[in-house]
Amino acid sequence: MEKMLNVVIFGAPGSGKGTQSENLIEKYGLAHISTGEVLRAEIKAGSELGKVADSFISKGQLLPDELIIDILADTLDKIEKTKGVIFDGFPRTIPQAEALKKMLAERNMEISIVIGLEVAEEELIDRLLKRGQASGRSDDNIDTIKSRLEVYNSQTNPLKEFYIKEKLYAAIKGEGTIDGIFADIKKAIALLD
Ligand code: AP5
Ligand code: MG
Q1: pLDDT at 1
Q2: Within 10 A of 179 (CB to CB), how many other CB atoms are there?
Q3: What is the atom index within ligand 1 of the atom nearest the CA of 152?
Q4: Which domains, from first to last, does the chain contain?
Q5: 148 part of the active site
Q6: In whole numbers, what is the pLDDT of the chain averaged over residues?
Protein backbone atom coordinates (compact mmCIF):
# COMPACT_ATOMS: atom_id res chain seq x y z
CA MET A 1 0.00 0.00 0.00
CA GLU A 2 1.22 3.47 -0.82
CA LYS A 3 2.34 5.47 2.19
CA MET A 4 -0.18 8.05 3.45
CA LEU A 5 0.68 11.73 3.21
CA ASN A 6 -0.49 13.41 6.41
CA VAL A 7 0.22 17.13 6.47
CA VAL A 8 -0.07 19.59 9.33
CA ILE A 9 -0.39 23.04 7.80
CA PHE A 10 0.86 25.43 10.44
CA GLY A 11 1.04 29.19 10.74
CA ALA A 12 -0.45 32.34 12.20
CA PRO A 13 -3.95 33.62 11.42
CA GLY A 14 -3.93 34.79 7.80
CA SER A 15 -0.73 32.93 6.89
CA GLY A 16 -2.52 31.04 4.09
CA LYS A 17 -3.35 27.68 5.71
CA GLY A 18 -6.79 27.47 4.09
CA THR A 19 -5.57 28.81 0.74
CA GLN A 20 -2.68 26.35 0.45
CA SER A 21 -4.87 23.48 1.74
CA GLU A 22 -6.99 23.89 -1.41
CA ASN A 23 -3.87 23.45 -3.55
CA LEU A 24 -2.80 20.39 -1.53
CA ILE A 25 -6.24 18.79 -1.86
CA GLU A 26 -6.21 19.27 -5.63
CA LYS A 27 -2.65 18.05 -6.17
CA TYR A 28 -2.47 15.11 -3.71
CA GLY A 29 -6.13 14.11 -3.25
CA LEU A 30 -6.05 14.61 0.51
CA ALA A 31 -8.93 14.97 2.95
CA HIS A 32 -9.05 18.31 4.78
CA ILE A 33 -9.81 18.91 8.46
CA SER A 34 -10.02 22.57 9.42
CA THR A 35 -11.11 22.90 13.04
CA GLY A 36 -12.02 26.55 12.37
CA GLU A 37 -14.33 25.51 9.52
CA VAL A 38 -15.93 22.77 11.62
CA LEU A 39 -16.66 25.35 14.34
CA ARG A 40 -17.99 27.97 11.90
CA ALA A 41 -20.39 25.35 10.48
CA GLU A 42 -21.66 24.67 14.02
CA ILE A 43 -22.15 28.40 14.58
CA LYS A 44 -24.09 28.66 11.34
CA ALA A 45 -26.25 25.70 12.34
CA GLY A 46 -26.98 27.36 15.69
CA SER A 47 -26.00 24.26 17.69
CA GLU A 48 -25.04 24.26 21.37
CA LEU A 49 -21.41 23.64 20.37
CA GLY A 50 -21.72 26.57 17.95
CA LYS A 51 -22.81 28.87 20.76
CA VAL A 52 -19.84 27.87 22.89
CA ALA A 53 -17.47 28.17 19.91
CA ASP A 54 -18.76 31.63 19.00
CA SER A 55 -18.02 32.97 22.48
CA PHE A 56 -14.34 32.03 22.07
CA ILE A 57 -13.87 32.75 18.37
CA SER A 58 -15.34 36.26 18.45
CA LYS A 59 -12.84 37.13 21.21
CA GLY A 60 -9.93 35.55 19.37
CA GLN A 61 -9.41 33.00 22.15
CA LEU A 62 -8.77 29.28 21.75
CA LEU A 63 -11.43 26.74 22.69
CA PRO A 64 -10.45 24.45 25.60
CA ASP A 65 -8.08 21.65 24.55
CA GLU A 66 -10.35 18.78 25.75
CA LEU A 67 -13.26 20.08 23.69
CA ILE A 68 -11.30 20.61 20.48
CA ILE A 69 -9.45 17.28 20.81
CA ASP A 70 -12.82 15.46 20.99
CA ILE A 71 -14.04 17.33 17.93
CA LEU A 72 -10.87 16.44 16.02
CA ALA A 73 -11.15 12.74 16.91
CA ASP A 74 -14.81 12.65 15.80
CA THR A 75 -13.98 14.39 12.53
CA LEU A 76 -11.03 12.09 11.86
CA ASP A 77 -13.22 9.01 12.33
CA LYS A 78 -15.87 10.37 9.97
CA ILE A 79 -13.62 10.89 6.96
CA GLU A 80 -13.42 8.25 4.25
CA LYS A 81 -10.26 6.28 3.68
CA THR A 82 -7.97 8.60 1.76
CA LYS A 83 -4.43 9.04 0.54
CA GLY A 84 -3.86 11.27 3.53
CA VAL A 85 -5.20 14.09 5.65
CA ILE A 86 -4.44 17.81 6.00
CA PHE A 87 -4.71 19.15 9.54
CA ASP A 88 -5.44 22.88 9.24
CA GLY A 89 -5.63 24.94 12.43
CA PHE A 90 -4.95 21.91 14.65
CA PRO A 91 -2.83 21.44 16.71
CA ARG A 92 -2.56 24.90 18.27
CA THR A 93 -1.13 23.99 21.69
CA ILE A 94 1.40 21.45 22.99
CA PRO A 95 -1.33 19.29 24.60
CA GLN A 96 -3.16 19.24 21.24
CA ALA A 97 0.04 18.17 19.47
CA GLU A 98 0.56 15.37 21.97
CA ALA A 99 -3.06 14.26 21.61
CA LEU A 100 -2.75 14.25 17.81
CA LYS A 101 0.34 12.08 17.92
CA LYS A 102 -1.42 9.55 20.14
CA MET A 103 -4.64 9.66 18.13
CA LEU A 104 -2.77 8.98 14.89
CA ALA A 105 -0.67 6.18 16.38
CA GLU A 106 -3.88 4.47 17.54
CA ARG A 107 -5.05 4.53 13.94
CA ASN A 108 -1.74 3.37 12.45
CA MET A 109 -1.10 6.82 11.07
CA GLU A 110 1.62 9.42 11.58
CA ILE A 111 2.39 12.98 10.55
CA SER A 112 4.52 13.09 7.39
CA ILE A 113 5.39 16.78 7.47
CA VAL A 114 4.54 20.06 9.19
CA ILE A 115 4.42 22.89 6.66
CA GLY A 116 5.15 26.10 8.59
CA LEU A 117 3.96 29.16 6.66
CA GLU A 118 6.05 32.08 7.89
CA VAL A 119 4.60 35.56 7.28
CA ALA A 120 5.41 38.96 8.81
CA GLU A 121 2.84 40.35 11.23
CA GLU A 122 2.03 43.53 9.22
CA GLU A 123 1.20 41.36 6.21
CA LEU A 124 -1.05 39.11 8.34
CA ILE A 125 -3.01 42.09 9.66
CA ASP A 126 -3.31 43.52 6.17
CA ARG A 127 -4.67 40.26 4.73
CA LEU A 128 -7.16 39.68 7.54
CA LEU A 129 -8.51 43.24 7.47
CA LYS A 130 -8.93 42.96 3.71
CA ARG A 131 -10.73 39.63 4.05
CA GLY A 132 -12.88 41.08 6.84
CA GLN A 133 -14.53 43.46 4.38
CA ALA A 134 -16.26 40.48 2.72
CA SER A 135 -15.89 37.37 4.89
CA GLY A 136 -18.50 38.03 7.54
CA ARG A 137 -16.18 36.24 9.99
CA SER A 138 -16.77 37.58 13.50
CA ASP A 139 -13.00 37.51 14.14
CA ASP A 140 -11.82 39.54 11.13
CA ASN A 141 -11.82 42.94 12.86
CA ILE A 142 -8.79 44.79 14.18
CA ASP A 143 -9.36 44.13 17.93
CA THR A 144 -9.96 40.41 17.48
CA ILE A 145 -7.11 40.11 14.96
CA LYS A 146 -4.75 41.54 17.60
CA SER A 147 -5.96 39.01 20.19
CA ARG A 148 -5.59 36.17 17.68
CA LEU A 149 -1.99 37.18 16.99
CA GLU A 150 -1.18 37.42 20.72
CA VAL A 151 -2.71 34.00 21.33
CA TYR A 152 -0.75 32.63 18.38
CA ASN A 153 2.54 34.04 19.66
CA SER A 154 2.09 32.82 23.22
CA GLN A 155 0.26 29.48 22.81
CA THR A 156 0.77 28.20 19.26
CA ASN A 157 4.18 29.40 18.11
CA PRO A 158 5.96 27.15 20.71
CA LEU A 159 4.82 24.21 18.56
CA LYS A 160 7.42 25.19 16.00
CA GLU A 161 10.19 24.07 18.40
CA PHE A 162 8.18 20.94 19.23
CA TYR A 163 8.05 19.92 15.57
CA ILE A 164 11.64 20.92 14.85
CA LYS A 165 12.62 18.45 17.59
CA GLU A 166 10.42 15.81 15.97
CA LYS A 167 12.24 16.50 12.66
CA LEU A 168 8.94 17.23 10.94
CA TYR A 169 9.05 21.02 10.53
CA ALA A 170 9.54 22.50 7.04
CA ALA A 171 9.78 26.30 7.08
CA ILE A 172 8.12 27.89 4.04
CA LYS A 173 8.18 31.60 3.28
CA GLY A 174 4.45 32.38 3.17
CA GLU A 175 4.77 35.68 1.32
CA GLY A 176 4.71 36.17 -2.43
CA THR A 177 2.32 34.66 -4.95
CA ILE A 178 0.05 31.78 -3.93
CA ASP A 179 1.50 29.65 -6.76
CA GLY A 180 5.10 30.47 -5.81
CA ILE A 181 4.46 29.45 -2.20
CA PHE A 182 2.78 26.24 -3.34
CA ALA A 183 5.82 25.43 -5.51
CA ASP A 184 7.98 25.58 -2.36
CA ILE A 185 5.50 23.36 -0.49
CA LYS A 186 5.63 20.76 -3.29
CA LYS A 187 9.44 20.79 -3.15
CA ALA A 188 9.37 20.12 0.62
CA ILE A 189 6.94 17.22 0.11
CA ALA A 190 9.04 15.78 -2.73
CA LEU A 191 11.98 15.50 -0.30
CA LEU A 192 10.01 13.02 1.87
CA ASP A 193 10.87 9.37 1.31
P1 AP5 B 1 -9.08 29.24 12.12
O2 AP5 B 1 -10.28 29.12 11.29
O3 AP5 B 1 -8.09 28.15 12.09
O4 AP5 B 1 -8.44 30.63 11.76
P5 AP5 B 1 -6.96 31.23 11.85
O6 AP5 B 1 -5.89 30.32 12.29
O7 AP5 B 1 -7.13 32.47 12.62
O8 AP5 B 1 -6.56 31.47 10.40
P9 AP5 B 1 -7.37 31.96 9.14
O10 AP5 B 1 -8.32 30.91 8.72
O11 AP5 B 1 -7.90 33.32 9.39
O12 AP5 B 1 -6.16 32.11 8.13
P13 AP5 B 1 -5.46 31.04 7.19
O14 AP5 B 1 -4.08 30.78 7.70
O15 AP5 B 1 -6.33 29.88 6.89
O16 AP5 B 1 -5.27 31.93 5.91
P17 AP5 B 1 -6.19 32.02 4.59
O18 AP5 B 1 -5.77 30.99 3.61
O19 AP5 B 1 -7.61 32.09 4.98
O20 AP5 B 1 -9.50 29.45 13.64
C21 AP5 B 1 -10.49 30.40 14.01
C22 AP5 B 1 -10.79 30.30 15.49
O23 AP5 B 1 -11.37 29.03 15.79
C24 AP5 B 1 -9.59 30.40 16.45
O25 AP5 B 1 -9.23 31.73 16.73
C26 AP5 B 1 -10.14 29.68 17.69
O27 AP5 B 1 -11.02 30.49 18.40
C28 AP5 B 1 -10.94 28.54 17.06
N29 AP5 B 1 -10.11 27.34 16.85
C30 AP5 B 1 -9.82 26.76 15.63
N31 AP5 B 1 -9.00 25.71 15.78
C32 AP5 B 1 -8.75 25.60 17.11
C33 AP5 B 1 -7.93 24.74 17.90
N34 AP5 B 1 -7.21 23.76 17.32
N35 AP5 B 1 -7.90 24.94 19.24
C36 AP5 B 1 -8.62 25.90 19.84
N37 AP5 B 1 -9.39 26.78 19.16
C38 AP5 B 1 -9.47 26.63 17.80
O39 AP5 B 1 -5.68 33.44 4.04
C40 AP5 B 1 -6.02 34.64 4.71
C41 AP5 B 1 -6.31 35.75 3.68
O42 AP5 B 1 -5.12 36.03 2.96
C43 AP5 B 1 -7.34 35.32 2.62
O44 AP5 B 1 -8.13 36.41 2.28
C45 AP5 B 1 -6.46 34.87 1.43
O46 AP5 B 1 -7.12 35.04 0.21
C47 AP5 B 1 -5.26 35.79 1.56
N48 AP5 B 1 -4.00 35.18 1.09
C49 AP5 B 1 -3.62 33.87 1.19
N50 AP5 B 1 -2.39 33.68 0.66
C51 AP5 B 1 -1.97 34.91 0.22
C52 AP5 B 1 -0.78 35.37 -0.43
N53 AP5 B 1 0.23 34.53 -0.72
N54 AP5 B 1 -0.69 36.69 -0.72
C55 AP5 B 1 -1.71 37.55 -0.42
N56 AP5 B 1 -2.87 37.17 0.18
C57 AP5 B 1 -3.01 35.86 0.50
MG1 MG C 1 -8.18 29.16 7.69
Answers
A1: 57
A2: 8
A3: 6
A4: 7-31+84-190 (3.40.50.300)
A5: yes
A6: 96
